[in-house]
Amino acid sequence: MVCETKIVADDHEAIAGTKKDSIIVSSSQMWTSSPSAIENKVEKRNQVFIREFERSDHEEVRRIFNEGIMERIPNSAFRGLKQQTRTQIMYAFLTVMCYVMTKSFTLTFCAPFILMGARYYYSRKVILEYLDCALHTDMADIEEYYMKPTGSCFWVAVLQGQVVGIVAAQGREDDNTLELRRMSVDSRFRGKGIAKALGRRVLEFAMLNNFSAVVLGTTAVKMAAHKLYESLGFRRVGDTDDHTLPGMTRSPLERLFFQIRYSRYRLQLHEE
């Protein structure tokens, strides 16, 4: 899921509206309660308009989704290694064995760079396969997957007439929960509270449709994404250190050079 974002501003106002309503959240209201005339003009320009997905949004939605997924390649290859203690030990062992077997300082010095290069290669391979899978399933036909089924929806955030953020919600009848999916914000517009506004829209939708809880899963490496979920009221309920993404082959080399942590979050709205 593409849920990675950076949140700086904090909006404490509730987001109103039904599924068929559009809402407006002003990012500048998060900073001041008594704007001057000049600030009012800036506020008007910075209003984030959240509405349901329309067919004409498809190209921009895919662009934002694609951008968010592609950011995962270096993040999972390099930043993600900090979360993989066993992998760090394995790489250190391989580096030592390189010296033991070759007695070459040059090769031993190059070994960590070769290992990091292999991590980048397999991270790119796996994530591109995951992206291709998503673009040929739900992201290929958003109306069919999210707009037509009861209890599901897809929203876009619009700023100055441009789509700058996306989020989906998919209802689960078996346990009466709503899954938050596909959240992503255009990298040029992060830090404006857009992701938090999108998240609150999903929570409002869940309450209006009487879901018992909102759940999500994320492979985000950056802490900003996890802080966002916590600020919305989500509680982390579990982690899987060796998660399998769609499209993975689980070959020995792939398992050696690609690992990703999957975190599950839950926000209980009311008891079933």
UniProtKB/TrEMBL annotation:
Residues 116-259 form the N-acetyltransferase domain. It is found in: Cytoplasm; Endoplasmic reticulum membrane; Microsome membrane; Mitochondrion membrane. It holds the Pfam family Acetyltransf_1. InterPro entries: Acyl_CoA_acyltransferase (IPR016181), GNAT_dom (IPR000182), NAT_camello-type (IPR050769). The keyword Transmembrane applies. Keywords: Acyltransferase, Cytoplasm, Endoplasmic reticulum, Membrane, Microsome, Mitochondrion, Transferase, Transmembrane, Transmembrane helix. The chain crosses the membrane at residues 89-115. It is a single-pass membrane protein. PANTHER family: GNAT FAMILY N-ACETYLTRANSFERASE, N-ACETYLASPARTATE SYNTHETASE. Belongs to the NAT8 family. This is N-acetylaspartate synthetase. It comes from Phoxinus phoxinus (Eurasian minnow). The lineage of its organism: Eukaryota, Metazoa, Chordata, Craniata, Vertebrata.
